[in-house]
């Protein structure tokens, strides 16, 4: 490979990466200012809420691109099955191992195509949702698949399995992937945006609750905190006054001690003078 072709190949790969990054939900984040500091907790929560709401609006706008107008699919006639036939179809579907999985992409053209491929040889097929399926979402999937495929939902097992019957007069359609469904690639992109929107809304709910708790805490304990600070100031002032009094008392005590020391020195001097005078008198008497 020449240098020119290698450069072109690298350029194409770089453009592909950039295009993939543009479709990534993480690219819709609102950039924050570097070194931004907040005066209090309320300001911090409010700025985070504002950024999250901007991102939510962007995600909702981006999800509108993946909306497809619904077209009326094949007519479904569930009243054609009797009770015995329905019971037989349930048992037959439970014994067989053919199934169609639904992953994080949800219901798209590939799911309906796989169902029609199973209906070539089998009258029933199980549609199983993976761990990405939410509780209660199976009913929505059952209605959507019945509209798109023309199958009859016979039984819903738990929160993740639906059994579909193809119908008595089933004819395989020429186009097995319906027109009003997304492709595999677009369905994955849509699921990413939906997941990001769900997390952003969850964060907004938590932040609003935190802000409400902050306001409630201020309403309950705001005055008590002010009183506590006032009492603390009063106590500090009282401590300062007591310290001043202690200092004055210690100064007066030191002055008294100094005066007592002076008196002791004077008394000692007088006693020594008396002793010297008495010794002098005794000496003169002895001479005589």
Automatic annotation (TrEMBL):
This is Uncharacterized protein. It comes from Populus alba.
């Amino acid at each position: 490979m020449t240098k020119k072709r290698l450069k072109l190949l690298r350029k194409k790969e770089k453009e592909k990466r950039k295009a993939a990054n543009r479709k990534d939900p993480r690219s819709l984040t609102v950039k924050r200012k570097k070194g931004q500091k907040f005066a209090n907790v309320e300001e911090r929560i409010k700025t985070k809420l504002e950024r999250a709401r901007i991102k939510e609006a962007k995600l909702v706008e981006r999800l509108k691109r993946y909306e497809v107008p619904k077209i009326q699919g094949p007519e479904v006639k569930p009243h054609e099955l009797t009770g015995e036939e329905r019971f037989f179809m349930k048992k037959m579907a439970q014994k067989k191992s053919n199934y169609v999985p639904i992953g994080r992409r949800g219901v798209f053209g590939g799911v309906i195509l796989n169902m029609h491929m199973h209906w070539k040889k089998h009258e029933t097929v199980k549609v199983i949702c993976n761990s990405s399926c939410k509780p209660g979402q199976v009913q929505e999937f059952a209605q959507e698949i019945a509209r798109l495929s023309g199958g009859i939902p016979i039984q819903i097992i738990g929160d993740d399995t639906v059994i579909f019957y193809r119908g008595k007069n089933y004819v395989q359609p020429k186009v097995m992937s319906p027109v009003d469904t997304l492709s595999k690639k677009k369905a994955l992109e849509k699921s990413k945006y939906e997941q990001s929107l769900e997390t952003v809304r969850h964060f907004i709910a938590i932040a609003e609750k935190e802000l409400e708790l902050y306001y409630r805490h201020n309403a309950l304990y705001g005055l008590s905190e002010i009183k506590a600070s006032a009492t603390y100031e009063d106590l500090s002032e009282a401590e300062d006054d007591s310290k001043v009094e202690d200092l004055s008392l210690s100064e007066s005590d030191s002055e008294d001690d100094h005066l007592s020391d002076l008196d002791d020195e004077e008394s000692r001097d007088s006693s020594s003078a008396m002793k010297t005078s008495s010794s002098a008198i005794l000496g003169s008497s002895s001479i005589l």
